Every structure is written in C-alpha cells, then in structure tokens.
Amino acid sequence: QVQLVESGGGSVQSGGSLRLSCAASGDTHSTSYMGWFRQAPGKEREGVAAIASDGRTIYADSVKGRFTISQDNPNNTLYLQMNTLKPDDTAMYYCAAEVRRTTPVFRPWWLLPTMYEYWGQGTQVAVSS
After folding, report:
1. Rounded CA gap, 82 and 41, in Å?
2. Residue 122: phi, psi to the nearest 5?
3. What DSSP state is assigned to residue 8?
4. In 1-129, at which residue ranges do the beta strands (DSSP E only) sit?
5. 3-class SS at 89?
6. What is the side-by-side strand order in the sheet with 77-82?
7. Which of 75, 71, 78 is nearest to 96 (CA)?
8. Per-residue pLDDT tens for 74-115?
9. Given CA atoms 73, 64, 97, 20 in this order, what sign does their dihedral have?
10. What is the DSSP letter of 44?
C-alpha cells in the first residue's frame, strides 16, 4: 500500500510558475515509477510527466521544456516544477505511483493512467490569462 498526498497547487497568471509536491508513505521502497497527471473539466485524465526509480523521465509534448519532474528518494517526495504556465495548464493535478509492475521498457506507457495503481486526491492549478 502506498499513500500519496499532493500539495502546491494554486492560482497564477499566465507565464508564472508553481511547484507541486507529492508526499508518499507506506511501501515506497517498492515503487517502480511515479507520475503526474492532470484532468480538466470535461476532459480525460492525461499524463504530464513520469519518472522511474532510476531517474529516467518522460514528458507529454505539451509540457516539454516547461515542466520538470524530480524525486527526493530519502524524503519520499515527488515534485513537478511548472514554469511558463499557460491557461491550458489549468486542471486538477494528480500524483500516481506503481509498485507491482516492473518499469515498462516502452517509456510512453508511463503516461497512461491505467499503468498506475495508487493515486493521490489531487491539487488544483488555475492559470489566468
């Protein structure tokens, strides 16, 4: 079992920055990979960024060059640094973790919601123009 709690969301103007955090507890030593997802009203949940336990990462094309995912393993915390935010980034952001599957070789799979078992409750990000 893994428990995830997100924080750091808020309201910013276009071009601004936010840093999301995800505090993990429980069987964190078994984590294979973790990711950040977002869901805007009326839209499906989409993968934003993911990171494997060895530090490999992948980003959605829409956030490449603007967002950075990182992990602080000793403190069991996942981060998402979001820069140059746009109104289209407005969504509920979720942290997710997978412990049972081995890390898929095909990296784009890390951005699929179905590849994760544990989810946080989300933190809201609102970007105004």
Report:
1. 20
2. 100, 155
3. -
4. 2-7, 10-13, 18-26, 33-39, 46-52, 57-59, 67-72, 77-82, 91-98, 118-119, 123-128
5. helix
6. 2-7, 18-26, 77-82, 67-72
7. 78
8. 889 999 999 999 999 999 999 999 998 888 989 999 999 999
9. positive
10. -
